[in-house]
Amino acid sequence: MPFAYDDQNIFAKILRGEIPNDTVMETDHTLAFNDIRPQAPVHVLVIPKGPYVCHDHFAAEASDAELADFLRVTARIVAEAGISPGDGGAGYRTISNAGQDGVQEVPHYHLHILGGRPLGRMLPPA
Ligand code: 5GP
Q1: Which of 15, 16, 21, 88 could disulfide-link to 33, CB 3.0 to 4.6 Å?
Q2: Going by CA atoms, what residue is nearest to atom 5 of ligand 1?
Q3: In the structure, which protein residues have their CB atom closer than 6 angstroms to any atom of ligand 1?
Q4: Does the annotation count 57 as an active-site position?
Q5: Number of domains within the chain
C-alpha cells in the first residue's frame, strides 16, 4: 500500500508557518528546528519540506537534490553544534522513528540529532 501523507500533522503546520518553531537551519528542501521537548542539550529535528511520512518513504521517493540537501544539512548542524567526532567533538546520535513499532509520534519524516551528553546504549535491554 502506498504511503498516505496527512497534511494536518504538526510538522506540516510548522512548514506552512501555522505554528512557530525555533529554526536552526533552513534550505530550499530542508528545515531543522529544536525539539520542543529536548532529551539532550542538542536535540534538533531535521525534516524535508516535501510530504514524506518516514525514512523509507523519503529514501525511495525524494529527488536526489532533496536527499543530498537533507544529509548535507545534518552534517552542517552537527559541525555547528561542535559535536562531530571528526572535529574533536564528543559525538552524537541520529534517530528516525517509523510507524507503530518505531513509536513515531509525528507522521512527517524527521531525523532526531541528539548530543551534548553521553547518550547511553541505543536501546534498553529487551
Ligand atoms: P517521533 O516520536 O515522531 O520520532 O518524535 C516527534 C518529536 O517531535 C518529539 O521529540 C516531540 O518532542 C517533537 N514535537 C512534537 N510536537 C512538536 C512541536 O510542535 N514543535 C517542536 N519543535 N517539536 C515537536
Answers
A1: 21
A2: 105
A3: 10, 19, 21, 33, 35-37, 45, 97, 103-106
A4: no
A5: 1
Q: Where are the beta strands (DSSP E) in 1-126?
A: 23-26, 30-34, 42-48, 92-95, 111-115
User: Is 21 part of any domain?
Assistant: yes
Task: State mean pLDDT over 121-125.
Answer: 87
SS3 (DSSP) at 109: coil
Ligand 1 atom with the smallest distance to the CA of 13 is: 19
**DSSP label at 102?**
T
pTM (two decimals):
0.97
Specify the CATH number for the domain of residue 107: 3.30.428.10
Pick from 69, 61, 57, 2: nearest CA to 29 = 69
Using a 10 angstrom Cβ sphere, with 0-12 exposed, 13-18 middle and 19 or more buried, the burial of residue 110 is buried
Residues 54-99: tens digit of each pLDDT:
999 999 999 999 999 999 999 999 999 999 999 999 999 999 999 9
